[in-house]
Amino acid sequence: MPPRPRPVAVIDIGSNSGRVVVYSPEAGGALRILASSRASLRLVRELDETNALSRESVERAMDALRDFKAIVVGGGSRKVVAVATAAVRDADNGRQFIQRVRRELGIRVQVLSGEEEARFGFLGALRGLSVESGYLFDLGGGSLQLSRFRDRRLGENASFPLGALRLSDAFLHGDPPTHKETKRLRAHARSFFAASRFPRLARGEALVATGGTVRNLAKVDQRLQGYPLHRLHGYELTRERAEEVVALLASRRLKKRVQVPGLNDDRGDSIVGGGLCVLTLMEWLDAPFLLVSGQGVREGLAVGIERASLPPGEAMRSASVEALAQAFRGYDPRTSARRRELARRLCDGLLPIPSEIRESLLHAATLLDVGRSIDFFDRHEHVADIVLSTDLLGFSHRGIALLSAVVRSAGDDGADLGALAPLVSHADVASIERAATLLVLADDIEERCRDNRAIGLRVSLRPREARLSVSGLVGWRPRRIGSRFARAFGRALRVTAAA
Length: 499
Known about the structure:
Helices cover about 50% and strands about 15% of the residues. A hairpin with a 2-residue loop joins strand 7 and strand 8. It is elongated. The longest helix is centred in the first third of the chain and has 20 residues. It is an alpha/beta fold. Helix 5 packs across helix 12. The strands form three sheets. The protein has a six-stranded mixed sheet, sandwiched between helices. The chain has a five-stranded mixed sheet with strand order 3-2-1-4-5, with helices on both faces. The two termini are about 40 Å apart. About 50% of the residues are buried.
């Protein structure tokens, strides 16, 4: 067995906030978080007036970094990657700050250029999203990195001095900000985008966004809607919804703004400026929505820069599902493979199921052993819940919801899927029920075949009957699965052992 990868710690000294995360590299490219801490730094606050980091902000950062070092040691990481971004990069005394960190704490900090920040942000932000081409932007406290990518490869990029805290301090002085102030801020941001000459989004392209401002806007929108998932990664925030959220936040005084559900306490003074910048960029690129990435520079640094491109979405999803299954002791790869192959052949031989639900069925066949590890009798319910709360890479929110729906329906004939709306609609119910029925049938047959042998399956579809001939089948009787199959497929089910 190959040695388990050692934990790696990433320290990110941002313009608005700092973060340390200790990661454990897992199978399938997953990064399991072992420890994490965050601190409000506000390094960029005085930068535009003095062109230097203030004494107060430096001391605040040093206090946070001492705590970060304790997290690194406690997390068992011997490898530390520490970086600083726009504020330290732009400050006249940024080098002195970096030297002090190394002298007092023994931490070597690399100041990322705008291009390096864009590259690491790209690797981190897109690694868990199934998006082929478009734009990625990372909005921090002091700057905005905008990158174009095609076929999951990074292209042109640019850095703009349009950070959320920097814009808020420069333009928004009223509490709440006035219409004139917000108009001037948007005009200022628009002038930078216009000068960059980036083309607007083309058909089939997407706008991906990362950074604390974007994640907070998305979190507020989820709370306002009563969204069914608590996951931000992969969330689609429409321009219309973004405008409503920003308008809500901009209309409130700071004291009331920080009470809005979903907003971090220390984002209250920067969220409006950042939100207005996001709206201006969406308008400039003609983006109907943005896709939120819950990952970014830190994950990119943890992964490294060895890969110039990212794996395709389908491969990412399969690897992520496999990694999740392997985390449970009861997972048996041979049983899982037999069940999955039976589900695939049943799907191919019977009435067609939409491709996205078919994929959900095959992933569900892999993950069923996870539920067995917890409680055999409630295995479907456990898997359905785990899927909704686990960071599976490459899945859209709808893909996560469909996977959970297929497994839950397999364990509960006629399960109420209303809690997954709007990701799962009434139009999906019939196809989900067919996929759930095939999952139950594949599991049922696999349990009754000789162990450790490949299972042959031949499907013969008649007008009123579906005949399955299974090699290695010891015995089978229809029980409740027979009537369930008849309802889902409109045919009687007949299963026999192959001669």
